[in-house]
Each structure stands twice: as C-alpha cells, then as structure tokens.
C-alpha cells in the first residue's frame, strides 16, 4: 500500500473525530448570553481537543512525507494511533460535561498519554522498516520533545487526583509545545 492511501485514510478518520467532538456540544436552552455560561467548560475542552487533533494531523502529515516505505507493521501502528485518537470525543465530552472533575481529567490524560505512546510506536516502526538510513531516524534524534510530552502527560494524570486544574495546565502546556509542527521533520520533508 502506498503512503498516500494511508495518509488519506488517516485524514478521513481525523475529520470524523473532529465532527463527532463538535456534535457532542449541545446548544444551551435559553436565548440570552448567560445561557452560554454552563457550556463554557465544554467549549474550552473542545478547543483544547481540537488543537490536539490538529497537532496530530499536522505532524502525521509531515511524518508521512519523510516515510519511504509503508508495510503491514506501519499500517497496524497507524491504526493503533487512530484508535487512541478516536477516543478523544469520549474523553473530551466526559471531562467537559463534568467541569474538569478529577476522574474525567485523569481519563483525558490517559487518552493523551496513549496517543503519544502510539505515535512514538508508529515512528519506531517506520524507523525499523527503513533501517539505519531512515530519514525519520536522522531528523528525530533522541526525540526529547516526544518523550517529555509522555512524562508530562503522566504527571498530569497523577495531578488530576490531587489538583485537577494543575493537570489541565499540564495538558495545555504540552499542546502549546506542539502547536508549531516539528521543524526537524518539516525541514526534512521539504528537501
């Protein structure tokens, strides 16, 4: 299978994920602006989740541009990533509906953590398939940003049981770290 087909399938799944997330937001009953106040946490959580899905879409796009060979292992690793990303609408809705309570915040963090692990696995499978001359291996180096993200997600999960707004701050911090696409991959894919 060519990488274009893999990328098109992934793009479609990510578009559906965003659609499901926005459909989970229900219009409030009432005609004044004050009727919007109860849905502010749901909206803020949607914005954060939208940013995360956009980050994954953007980085996945760049990842596929430096990938030379798609194998069965790459397909399964990609599906593993899509599985965890497909849980974003559930985790987003649960946390937003419950105003960032501890348990939903922890589950949101677990989904973020597992999506990061799945992305890391996808990178490693691509590198293993391409060998020591893998362009991805050269641009990733030690992947400190990816590993730091996983550590921060784990800290966020732990913090959610202590002070849930600290966990939220950690999740926002990681999103801010990734808002700009990985320049290492971006530079390699432009050659």
From TrEMBL:
Q: Where in the cell is it found?
A: Membrane
Q: Which UniProt keywords apply?
A: Ion channel, Ion transport, Membrane, Potassium, Potassium channel, Potassium transport, Transmembrane, Transmembrane helix, Transport
Q: Which InterPro entries does this UniProt record tie to the protein?
A: TMEM175-like
Q: Which residues cross the membrane?
A: 6-23, 35-55, 75-94, 106-128, 148-180
Coiled-coil annotation reads none
User: Which reaction is the catalytic activity of this chain?
Assistant: K(+)(in) = K(+)(out)
Its main localization is membrane
Identify its membrane topology class: Multi-pass membrane protein
Protein origin, superkingdom: Bacteria
UniProt lists the family membership as follows: Belongs to the TMEM175 family.
Q: What is this protein called?
A: DUF1211 domain-containing protein
In which organism is this protein found?
Undibacterium rivi
């Amino acid at each position: 299978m060519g990488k274009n087909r893999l990328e098109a399938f992934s793009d479609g799944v990510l578009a559906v994920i965003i659609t499901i997330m926005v459909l989970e937001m229900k219009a409030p009953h009432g005609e004044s602006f004050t009727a919007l106040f109860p849905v502010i946490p749901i909206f803020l959580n949607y914005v954060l989740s939208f940013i995360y899905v956009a980050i994954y879409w953007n980085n996945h796009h760049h990842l596929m541009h430096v990938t030379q060979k798609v194998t069965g292992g790459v397909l399964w690793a990609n599906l593993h990533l899509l599985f965890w990303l497909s849980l974003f609408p559930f985790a987003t809705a649960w946390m937003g509906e419950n105003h960032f309570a501890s348990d939903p915040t922890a589950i949101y963090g677990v989904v973020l953590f597992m999506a990061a692990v799945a992305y890391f696995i996808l990178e490693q499978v691509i590198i293993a398939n391409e060998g020591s001359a893998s362009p991805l291996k050269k641009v990733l180096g030690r992947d400190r940003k990816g590993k730091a993200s996983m550590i921060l997600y784990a800290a966020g999960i732990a913090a959610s049981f202590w002070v849930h707004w600290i966990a939220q701050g950690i999740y926002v911090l990681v999103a801010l770290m990734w808002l700009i696409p990985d320049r290492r991959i971006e530079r390699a894919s432009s050659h």
